[in-house]
Design a protein that fits this description.
Length: about 140
């Protein structure tokens, strides 16, 4: 098991998609999630990689919603309007000196409702490039 400080560093460095999924599930269930403990569980279950890359977002989300939930995730264009039973996470990108920076945030109707970083410069200076649509049902 990794130390809490190392886990926090990894989540802070590249865990925006991971934290956005956690936020959606917290809002849906009304329960607060311990992201440090979740990191270990998600890593050992193969839902995320050590650097917080989310390999299996639907499985992670289903676990957080109680395990019996059927969750699907798909990519959509930024113009897609989610249905009432869908949740959206938007990927933003900004470019600087030949480098592309990416950041995920929770959005609703195109507006940012949760930014894991607080106020990301990638969101401020970049543009939305795609959405991840989570359907529970």
């Amino acid at each position: 098991m990794l130390s809490k400080q190392l886990i926090a560093k990894r989540i802070g460095a590249s865990g925006c998609y991971f934290l956005s999924i956690v936020y959606l599930c917290e809002k849906r269930t009304g329960k607060q999630i311990d992201v440090i403990a979740l990191y270990d569980k998600a890593l050992s279950s193969g839902w995320i990689e050590a650097d917080c890359f989310v390999a299996k977002p639907a499985e992670l989300c289903a676990y957080l919603l109680g395990g019996n939930a059927k969750v699907s995730v798909r990519h959509e264009a930024t113009s897609y309007k989610p249905k009432p039973n869908e949740m959206e996470i938007t990927r933003y990108e900004s470019k600087a000196t030949g480098t592309t920076f990416a950041h995920f945030v929770v959005t609703k109707d195109g507006a940012v409702v949760y930014d894991p970083y607080g106020s990301s410069s990638t969101v401020k200076n970049g543009k939305p490039v795609s959405k991840r649509i989570f359907t529970v049902g």
